Amino acid sequence: MRKRRQKPSEGTGVAEMLEINAVSKAYGEHRVLDDVSLQLKRGDIALLVGANGSGKSTLLRCVAGLTAFEGSVRVLGADPRSGADNRGRIGYLPQLVSLPESVTVGEVIAFFARLRGVSVRRPADLAAAVPLPDGFLPSLERPIGALSGGMRRRVALGAALLGSPPLVLLDEPAASLDEEHSSSLWETLQALRAAGGTALIAMPLLVTSMLRHDLASVADRAVMIDHGRVVHDGSVESLRPAPALGAHSLTSLPSLPSQVSR
Amino acid sequence: MNVAAVIAVAGWELRLAVRGRLVLGTAITFTIVCVAATLLGLRSLSDLGLAGVGPGTAALINLAILFPPLMGLMLGANSLSSSRERGLLPLMLAQPISRLDLVTGVVLGLVGAVWLTIGFGFGASALLLASVAGTADVGGLLVIVASALGVGVVSVALGVAISALAGSRLQALGLSMGLWFLFAFAIDLVLAGVGAAVHLGPFGLFVGVLLNPLEAGRVLMVLASGADALTLGPFGAYLNDTVGTAGAALAVCASLATWTVLSLLTAWTGVARRDP
C-alpha cells in the first residue's frame, strides 16, 4: 500500500476511518476480489476506479457489510458485519437502486431517516437531514413514479447521505446526473471532507477520465482495481489519458510495484 | 431487537402494499364476495322461515380460507424478492438494522395489509348481519374473523419465507401460487382420492389437517363458530372422541403457530445467509 504523507493535523495515534485488510471474495470458482488491502483516514476522498466487472461494487458491498468475504474490514475499528449499529457509521449508495414508484420523495427520505435514527418529526427536518445543497432533492411531495432517472438517483443519494455518516460508499453516484447536479454532488463531498468525513467512490474508468478535472478537486486518491486486485494507488492526476485514445486504458498505466501493495 | 426500525419497516411495507393493485383489487373483490355470500345466506334462511343467521356465517369460511391466504402468500412472496431485484434490499440492509428486524418488519407490515382486507370484507358482512339479524349473530362471524386473521399471519410468513429463498421475484410468485393451490385444493383432492385406498383413517386425516395450514384454519373456523367437532362428520366424531372440541381447536392453533414460527425462521435464515 502506498504510504501517504502525514498531514500536520494527524497524530500518529489517529485511527484509520476504513481499514480493508487482505479481503478476498469469490462467487463459486470466480474470484472477484483477490487479497485487497486499502486504508482511508478521516477526510480522505478516494476514487475506486476500474473497468466493468473489476470488483469495485463487490468491494463496496464488503465494506458495507452486505456480503461475506475472507479477510477483514474495519470502519472506525469495528467490523460492519458484527452489528447493526456499526453500519450506522456508513452511508451506502448501491450502483442500481429502483425506488418504489408509489411513494413520495419525502416518504423515502423519512423512511431511511427512521432506519438511521435521524429525527424527522417535521417536514422541514427531512430536507435538513440530507447534507445536500438546496434543490438537489426533488420536491418532497413528488411521487417517485413521476421522477426522471436522474432525479431518482438524487433521491437515492439523499437517502445514502442521511445524517452525514462518517464513511460514505458511493457506487457510481454520478450515473444519470446532469452536469449541474454532478457539480452539486462534488461540492457536497468537499463539504463532507471538510467536516472530517471520508468517502470511497466507485467509478468506471472512462467516466473517471472524462471527469478527471472535476474529480481532482474532490478526490485526493485514485485506487485502480483490475480483476479484483489493486493495481494502482495514486493521485487522480495520475490517471492520465492515453494520448492516442483520449481516455485511460489499463495498458497505459505506469508500473508501480514499489508503491502498490496489491 | 430495534423496535423503532421494525415499526419503520412495517409502516413502509404496509404503505407500499395498500398502494399496490394487488391489495386494492383483492380487498374490493373480497368485500364484494363477502357481502354477496352474506346476502345469499340471509335470503336462504329467510326463505326457510329462520331468524338466526349463525349457520349463514359458515358460508364465509370458504372465502376466508381462499382469498386472504392467496393475498398473504403473494404479498409475502413479492416482498423481499422484489426489493432484491430493485436493489432496494442492499440499501435497506446497509442501514443500522439487523436482518431479523427487517424480516420482522416486512412480515408485520404485510400482515397489516392482509388484516385490513379481511377487516373490509368481514366488516361489511358484519354490518349486514347486525342490521338484519341483530348483533347476537355477529359473534359467530367474529370468531371466524379471528381465525382468518391467524391464517393470514401464516400465509404472509410462508410467502416471506418463499421470497427469502427464491431465485427471483417471478419464481417466488409462482411458488406461492403453487403452494396456495396445493393447500387450498390439491391436498384435499388427494386425501379424498387416496384416503380410503390407503386406509388413512381419521387419525391420518387429522395429521393431514395439521400439515395443511389452510385446512387447519378451516377446521378452526368451524369449531370456533360455535359448532362442535361433530359438524365435521365422521372425522369430527373421531376428534370429539379422542381430543374433544377444545383439544381439536388447540391442536389446529398449535399447527398454525408452528407453521408461522417455522416460516419466520426460514425467512430469517434465508435473509441472513444470502447476499442481498
Keywords:
heterodimer, A: 262 residues, alpha/beta, Rossmann fold, 6-stranded mixed beta sheet, 8 helices, 27% helix, globular, disordered N terminus, disordered C terminus, B: 276 residues, mainly alpha
Which helices and strands occur, and which strands form pairs?
The complex is a heterodimer of chains A (262) and B (276).
Chain A (H helix, E strand, L loop, with lengths): L17 E10 L2 E11 L4 E6 L5 H8 L6 E6 L8 H4 L2 E4 L11 H12 L6 H7 L19 H12 L6 E5 L7 H16 L3 E7 H6 L1 H5 L4 E6 L2 E6 L28
Parallel strand pairs in A: 3-7, 3-8, 5-6, 6-7
Antiparallel strand pairs in A: 1-2, 1-4, 8-9
Helix pairs in contact in A: 3-4, 3-5
Chain B lengths: L2 H16 L2 H27 L6 H4 L1 H6 L2 H20 L1 H6 L5 H35 L4 H28 L3 H26 L6 H10 L2 H12 L8 H10 L1 H30 L3
The secondary-structure class of chain A comes to alpha/beta
Summarize the helix and strand pattern of chain B as letters: HHHHHHHHHHHHH
- Stated plainly, the CATH topology of chain A is called Rossmann fold
Summarize the amount of helix of chain B as a percent range.
over 70%
Q: How many domains of chain B?
A: 1
The count of helical stretches of chain A stands at 8
Span between termini of chain B: 20 Å
Question: Of all protein chain pairs, which has the greatest interface, and how many residues does each chain bring to it?
Answer: A-B, 33 and 26 residues
Question: Would you identify the CATH H-level superfamily of chain A?
Answer: P-loop containing nucleotide triphosphate hydrolases
Largest sheet of chain B: none
Our measurement of the CA-to-CA distance between the termini of chain A, rounded to an integer number of angstroms, reads 7 Å
Strand residue percentage of chain B:
under 5%
User: Uncertain spans of chain A, ≥5 residues at pLDDT below 50?
Assistant: 1-14, 242-262
Strand/helix succession of chain A? EEEHEHEHHHEHEHHEE
The total beta strand count of chain B reads 0
Please compute the radius of gyration of chain A using only Cα atoms: 18 Å
